[in-house]
C-alpha cells in the first residue's frame, strides 16, 4: 500500500508533536484550505496548535460533520467543540461547519458540498470510529457519497452518548461530508489512539476496499498518513 504511510508514535503527546511539525511544513508550503475533525482524538492536537506560534489567519477550514439540531451554543455540538478547542484561540480566515440547525438540511448539504469543492481541501484530518466510520459515514455508505444527512448507527450512538447527559439526548441524525468529499482532499492524515481503534485500522491494513468499513476508502487515495500509537497491526 504505497499510498499509505504509517507513523507509529509512543503516545498522544508525540502524536501532537508530529502533527505540529507537519502543520508547520504545510503552512510554509502554502496550505490554504484545511479539513478538520472533531472527537477526543483531536483534542491534544488542537491544544498543541493553540499553544504554538502557528498562524492560521490565511487559512479557510471545513469541518467534517455536525449533529442535526445542535447549534454552536450547545456544548455537545461540533461547532462548540471547534470554537472551544481551536477557533477561540487561533483566528482563521474563514471557518465552515455544516449547519445542523438549517431549515432545509438537504439544501445545506448541497451548499456545503459546493463550497468545499469550490475551495478544494489541501489537507484533511480524520479520526475513525470503532466501527470503521470516517466523519459520520457509517458502514454501508457508498464511497461515491457527497455531503449528506445520515442516520447514526447503534454502535456510534452508544460510543458517542458518553458525552451527553443521557442516551436519549444524543441526536440520531447528523450532516456529514461524504466519502467522495473526503477523498477529494489532496492529502489526508488519519489519527487513531488506543486498542478500541485496532479493529478499524486492521481493516485498512488488510488492503481490501469494503463499504462495510468506510475507512478502507482511503485505499483509493494517493496520499494518506496514519498516525497511531498502535503497533503490530496485522492484516
Ligand atoms: N463524527 C466523529 C468522527 O469524525 C470521529 O472520528 C469519531 C472518533 O471520535 P474519538 O476521537 O472521540 O474517538 O467520533 C465521531 O463519531
Q: Ranges with pLDDT <50 over ≥5 residues?
A: none
Overall structural domain count? 1
What is the CATH-assigned architecture?
3-Layer(aba) Sandwich
Spatial extent as radius of gyration: 16 Å
Bound compounds: 2-amino-2-deoxy-6-O-phosphono-alpha-D-glucopyranose
CATH class: Alpha Beta
According to CATH, what is the topology? Rossmann fold
Strand order of the largest sheet: 1-10-9-6-2-3-5
Helix % is 25-40%
Plain-language structure description:
It is a single chain. The protein contains 7 helices and 10 strands. The chain is of the alpha/beta class and 235 residues long. The chain has one domain: Rossmann fold (3-Layer(aba) Sandwich). The model has no long low-confidence stretch (mean pLDDT 96). Bound molecules: 2-amino-2-deoxy-6-O-phosphono-alpha-D-glucopyranose (GLP). 2-amino-2-deoxy-6-O-phosphono-alpha-D-glucopyranose (GLP) is lined by residues 37-41, 64-65, 127-129, 135-136, 156, 160. It comes from Bhargavaea beijingensis. This is Glucosamine-6-phosphate deaminase. One of its GO terms (biological process) is carbohydrate metabolic process. Keywords: Carbohydrate metabolism, Hydrolase.
Short summary:
The chain has 235 residues and is α/β, with parallel strands linked by helices. The protein is built from seven helices and ten strands. The chain has one domain (4-228): Rossmann fold.
Amino acid at each position: 500500500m504505497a499510498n499509505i504511510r504509517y507513523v507509529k508514535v509512543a503516545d498522544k503527546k508525540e502524536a501532537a508533536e508530529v502533527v505540529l511539525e507537519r502543520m508547520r511544513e504545510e503552512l510554509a508550503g502554502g496550505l490554504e484550505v484545511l479539513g478538520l475533525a472533531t472527537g477526543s482524538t483531536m483534542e491534544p492536537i488542537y491544544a498543541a496548535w493553540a499553544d504554538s506560534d502557528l498562524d492560521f489567519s490565511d487559512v479557510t477550514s471545513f469541518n467534517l460533520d455536525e449533529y442535526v439540531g445542535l447549534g454552536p451554543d450547545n456544548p455537545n455540538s461540533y461547532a462548540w467543540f471547534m470554537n472551544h478547542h481551536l477557533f477561540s484561540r487561533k483566528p482563521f480566515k474563514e471557518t465552515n461547519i455544516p449547519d445542523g440547525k438549517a431549515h432545509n438540511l438537504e439544501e445545506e448539504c448541497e451548499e456545503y458540498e459546493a463550497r468545499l469543492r469550490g475551495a478544494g481541501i489541501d489537507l484533511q484530518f480524520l479520526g475513525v470510529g470503532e466501527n470503521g466510520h470516517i466523519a459520520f459515514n457509517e458502514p454501508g455508505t457508498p464511497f461515491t457519497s457527497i455531503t449528506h444527512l445520515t442516520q447514526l448507527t447503534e454502535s456510534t450512538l452508544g460510543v458517542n452518548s458518553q458525552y451527553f447527559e443521557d442516551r436519549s439526548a444524543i441526536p440520531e441524525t447528523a450532516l456529514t461530508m461524504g466519502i467522495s468529499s473526503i477523498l477529494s482532499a489532496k492529502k489526508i492524515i488519519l489519527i487513531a489512539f488506543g486498542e478500541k481503534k485496532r479493529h478499524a485500522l486492521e481493516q485498512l491494513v488488510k488492503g481490501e476496499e469494503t463499504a462495510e468499513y468506510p475507512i478502507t476508502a482511503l485505499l483509493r487515495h494517493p496520499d494518506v498518513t496514519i498516525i497511531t500509537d498502535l503497533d503490530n497491526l496485522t492484516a
